[in-house]
Amino acid sequence: MAILVVAEHDNQNIKDATHKTVTAALAMGSDVDVLVAGKGVKDVAAEAAKISGVRKVLACDHVSLKKQLAEAMQEVIVPLMDGYDAVLAPDTTTGKNFMPRIAAKLDVMQISSISGVEGADTFVRPIYAGNAMATVKSSDAKKVVTVRPTSFDAAGEDGSASVETIADPSGDIKSEFVSEELSKSDRPELTAAKIVISGGRGMGSGENFAIIEKVADKLGAAVGASRAAVDAGFVPNDYQVGQTGKVVAPELYIAVGISGAIQHLAGMKDSKIIVAINKDEDAPIFQVADYGWVADLFNAVPELEAELAKAGY
Amino acid sequence: MKVLVPVKRVLDYNVKVRVKSDQSGVDLANVKMSMNPFDEISVEQAVRMQEAGTATETVVVSIGPDKAQETIRTALAMGMDRGIHVKTDEEVEPLAVAKILQAIVGEENPELVILGKQAIDDDSNQTGQMLGALLDWPQATFANTVEKDGNKLTVAREIDGGLQTIKVDLPAVITTDLRLNEPRYASLPNIMKAKRKEIAAKTPDDYGVDISPRLATLKVEEPAGRSAGVKVEDAAELVAKLKTEGVI
Ligand SMILES: Cc1cc2nc3c(=O)[nH]c(=O)nc-3n(C[C@H](O)[C@H](O)[C@H](O)COP(=O)(O)OP(=O)(O)OC[C@H]3O[C@@H](n4cnc5c(N)ncnc54)[C@H](O)[C@@H]3O)c2cc1C
Ligand SMILES: Nc1ncnc2c1ncn2[C@@H]1O[C@H](COP(=O)(O)O)[C@@H](O)[C@H]1O
């Protein structure tokens, strides 16, 4: 079967989520092409061509694709689907935005946020905030699938696929990009970081996140948050980890002043090692933590930083 | 501007999910059900637009069993004008929901449809985008703020990197994110008033939509569990453990 993977990128660099989606695609079949749709994507297409197992890269370069808004993506992808049996994209906010439009146009049911591939038409996906895992089989002729990147290893980079330029999207587009306010940070991206340290309502204020950031800088970690911390305005929305925020699965996840509601656990319980710092010894977060530290975070976090400094971090 | 708000009745977000022992699904017998939290945010948005004079009429629709009427009543008690109940005891997948909504849009001619970004039971995050495609309308998903200017909407969207603002032509579909607003509680007088508001009774057949599922659920299992580990006393002990684990 022929499978199209839609690359995640920012017109400059390809995102690791693409490599992980390619792995999911290769579990379904061997003819995997990657679509790079954007503006000024020559370099991204070259990077995509290096992904191991990729047959061919399709590049579509057009101003309407600069932000990969849903309607423009639909215009590019739907016509391509005559030649493919399946289309996959990472379940980032970009993929989540355009993929269901493709599914509706093809009259198929999308399979969202898969965590496993059992065969070309059978997938595992978390439902109810990851409290249940459903195995579903699609009877649709074509499969439209979004992939949870944290559940798949990244494909390697020893490929040398050809790059083919495809026609510009046509059609009347009724939405336009106005502006973007992106969080700037020198720290790694939440979903790609090996270590994540997150703060919750217990942090008390945005300023107090500074103590977490100091630890993050020592460990090269990304900083995340619970919904309560975002709702309270301590940190921006893109910090939110959970069922309706980002899903992360780092080597190490440190939860500080977070109670451990199921909606939060949904976004981090696949982390390899979980550490919880909370002053309430009955907090549910301790039920999933490998290492629990019952303490006031305002003492514990600076102590942790000092200890890391002592150890040479 | 007429506004249509689709709402889904789901397992309450506070209820502990139990997977049935025969792996056929999640146990929904005798558990508390509520309006999908994102749909409460959509209802609140519609009611606020009406209060601000931007919306002229607000219509709520739910597709589901008899009890879905309770969810419609909740939206009416929050201030929406009237309801449409599309009755079915089958589970309806997002694609079929979107097709029913497309037919309702054809009859009602709203200029705006506000859906939740995701239903917290199936976690699909699809229906709004599918409806947008079926209608050939633009969409603004994961809305954090919504403003109407003329025949366009300016919407700030919660995206992975931060916030993105786009402008869409009306008619349009929007899906709501958590921080768009804080939904109100219905007051007792409004709950009483809602009892007299009209709810039209419909079925998927009335709209000529085939709701047979495209996905067969082969099994539903408990996720791999995690168990509580050990407690540490101080930073030195924690750092030592993390070094042994090889994660720092
Ligand atoms: C539709 C929906 C979607 C949701 N999606 C998400 C999501 O994606 N992500 C998410 O995180 N939540 C989500 N939630 C919210 C979730 O239900 C919880 O409300 C939220 O996770 C709680 O955040 P918290 O743990 O920071 O706050 P709380 O539950 O208030 O916990 C604060 C913790 O801090 C501890 N603490 C306080 N002070 C100190 C101190 N000085 N030292 C040490 N510990 C201290 C307390 O003991 C407590 O355990 C969602 C909810 C709904 C309804
Ligand atoms: N059965 C239903 N009845 C009415 N609206 C629904 C139904 N199912 C889904 N929706 C709407 O679609 C949104 C997204 O659902 P989903 O795509 O299933 O995650 C929900 O927040 C509702 O607004």
Radius of gyration of chain B: 21 Å
β-strand number of chain A: 16
Strand content of chain A: 25-35%
Order of helices and strands of chain A: EHEHEHEHEEEEEEEEHEHEHEEH
What percentage of amino acids of chain B are in beta strands?
25-35%
Order of helices and strands of chain B: EEEHEHEHEHEEEEHEEEH
- N- to C-terminal distance of chain B: 56 Å
**Overall helicity of chain B:** 25-40%
End-to-end CA span of chain A: 49 Å
Number of helices of chain A: 8
Keywords:
heterodimer; A: 313 residues; alpha/beta; seven-stranded parallel β-sheet; five-stranded parallel β-sheet; 25% helix; B: 248 residues; nine-stranded mixed β-sheet; two-stranded antiparallel ribbon; 6 helices; 30% strand; globular; binds flavin-adenine dinucleotide; binds adenosine monophosphate
Protein described:
- The complex is a heterodimer of chains A (313) and B (248).
- Chain A is α/β, with parallel strands linked by helices.
- In chain A, 25% of the residues lie in helices and 28% in strands.
- Chain A has eight helices and 16 strands.
- Chain A has a seven-stranded parallel beta sheet with strand order 5-9-4-1-2-3-10, sandwiched between helices. Chain A has a five-stranded parallel beta sheet with strand order 13-12-14-15-16.
- In chain A, helix 1 (16-26) links the parallel strand 1 and strand 2.
- Chain A is elongated, with a radius of gyration of 21 Å.
- Chain B has helices spanning 37-51, 68-78, 94-108, 127-135, 188-194, 235-245; strands spanning 2-6, 9-11, 33-35, 57-64, 82-87, 112-116, 139-149, 152-159, 162-169, 172-176, 199-202, 215-221, 230-231.
- The relative contact order of chain B is 0.18.
- At the A-B interface, helix 3, helix 4, strand 5, strand 7 and strand 8 of A face helix 3, helix 4, strand 7, strand 8 and strand 9 of B.
- Strand 16 (291-294) of chain A pairs parallel with strand 13 (230-231) of chain B, so a sheet runs across the interface.
